[in-house]
Structures are given as C-alpha cells and as structure tokens.
Amino acid sequence: MVLDNLGSSLRGSLDKLQGKSRLDEEDVEEIVREIQRSLLSADVDVNLVMDLSSSIEERALNEEPPGGTSARDHVLKIVYEELVGLIGESTEIPLEPQTILLAGLQGSGKTTTAAKMAWWFSTKGLRAAVIQTDTFRPGAYDQAKQMCERAEVEFYGDPEEEDPVKIARDGLEATEDADVHIVDTAGRHALEDALIDEIEQIEGAVNPDRSLLVLDAAIGQGAKDQARQFDDSIGIDGVVITKLDGTAKGGGALTAVNETDSSIGFLGTGETVQDIERFEPNGFISRLLG
Length: 290
Ligand code: GDP
Known about the structure:
Elements (H helix, E strand, L loop, with lengths): L7 H8 L9 H17 L4 H17 L8 H17 L10 E6 L6 H14 L4 E5 L7 H12 L2 E3 L7 H11 L5 E5 L8 H14 L3 E7 L6 H12 L3 E5 L9 H9 L3 E5 L7 E3 L2 H9 L1
Parallel strand pairs: 1-4, 1-5, 2-3, 2-4, 5-6, 6-7
Antiparallel strand pairs: 7-8
Helix pairs in contact: 1-2, 2-3, 3-4, 5-6, 7-8, 8-9, 9-10
The protein binds guanosine-5'-diphosphate (GDP).
C-alpha cells in the first residue's frame, strides 16, 4: 500500500470499494469530495485542490486498473501519483561544500532551521557553519549562537555590527574552513521593501548555491505571496516546512512549491537541533490526507 494513516472518512469511502474491480461515477465523486475536504482543511490552495481533483476524477474514471488490481488500490495509486506529481521528490541537497541562504518571515523558524541543517550536515561528515546576519530581531544572535553550540557546529555573528551584508561577507571569510555555510537572514512580520532589499544584497554578497524558503506549517493561504516575492527577488530552490510537530498539516508548502516551481527539502519537527528530517513525499501526503 502506498499510503497509510489516511483520514477516517477517506478511508471509509475507499473501504466501500473493497471487492469491487470497477469504479462507477458515484464512487469516484465521493472519493474526490473526501480528498477535497482533507486538502482544504490542510490549507492547500483552493485552485490547486480543484486542479488536483479534476485530474484524479478524470483518471479514475478513464484508466483501467491493471489486471489483479482492485478498484480501491487503483484509485489510491492515482491519488498518490497526482499528489507526488505536484509535490515532487525532495529538493536535491548534495553532500558537498556549498552555501545555503535561508529566507522567510520572522518567526517562521529560520534561525532554528539554520542550526538544525548545520547539525544535519555534520552528521553526514561535512563541517558546517552558521552565519547569522539577522541584525533586526533582538536575541537572534544569542539564540543562533546557543543553538550552534548545542549542535556543535561553527557559528559566526557580530552583535556590534549593524550591516547584515558586511556580517555575511565577514562570516564567509571567518568560516572559510567549513564545507557548508548556512546563512541565516532577518525576517520581518510582513514582506516589506526593506526586507527584500536586504536579502537581495546578502544574496549578491554570498552568492549561494541554493536558497531555501522557510515556512511555518501553519502558514496556510498566505504562502503564495511570500513564495512569489522571495522567488522574484532571490530565486527559491526549495522549501523547508517547520513546526510539523504541531497540529498544522503544512498544506501551504504545496502552494509555495507550486508557485516557485521548486520542491521541499527539509521538515522541522521540534525545537531542538536534532528535530530535522529530509522531506519524504509518502509521509507528507499521508499527513495531508489524514
Ligand atoms: P526566525 O524568526 O524565522 O528565525 O524563527 P526562529 O527560529 O526563532 O523560530 C521561532 C519559534 O519557533 C522559536 O520559538 C522556535 O523554537 C520555534 N520553532 C522553530 N522550528 C520549530 C519546529 O520545527 N517545531 C517547533 N515546535 N517549534 C519550532
């Protein structure tokens, strides 16, 4: 079975197909309705939900189940394939020297993610350093420093310096022995011009190999604007969804992935440095539908 932990009403509709070898229109409609309900309550963008459901409906009605496959397994496979088609496989993160820039709004979990990712790379045998350029949020420096100590990774920041671009440049130099540089940036409560200008300048200074957008799993429909703006300014190569240990399902990430034509790289699942996982479509899709 490709999906486990499905929500009970969707599972119920699927279970009604048990023993059937063909699907009729009514069966398909009921399943599609359940899928729509699950995805909308997981905060997936309405237009995306509509596109997905029409593809699922069309395929479920027109494609013959391969010999020996029950109608239930056939439709489940279609649902899974359509969602994987949208979400994609996880963002490619090569285990080699690189610079990664993190972008996102204040509170999205960037600083925590920077330390977590550095820890993750260190478990893969790479020497990682975090460069903290957030001069905007009080406490960002201390927080990053402490987390990096806990993660046993290098850290660079300068609480006396006000220019984040200078910190970024100095940080790369100061940590040049590290293999992987993770550059944390300031967020704001909203997408102000000052935030976008600043991150564009930092991007120009550090010339990252990849830029990741950090999104709180609870972001919901607001994901679209954020993703669009960050993608237009620095180019987004992948998304990190944080706070998946909470109740939010993270459907906003789908919107962001779709908007930036990227994929999901990492999941944040707690407040400590080890609470990070590489994205894996199966578990995430089960969660969205659950
Ligand atoms: P930033 O402003 O984007 O740098 O966000 P922070 O890294 O400071 O995170 C904001 C808050 O979210 C902090 O209290 C973090 O401990 C918390 N946080 C970040 N990631 C996660 C996560 O995956 N799970 C949980 N439960 N909390 C998280």
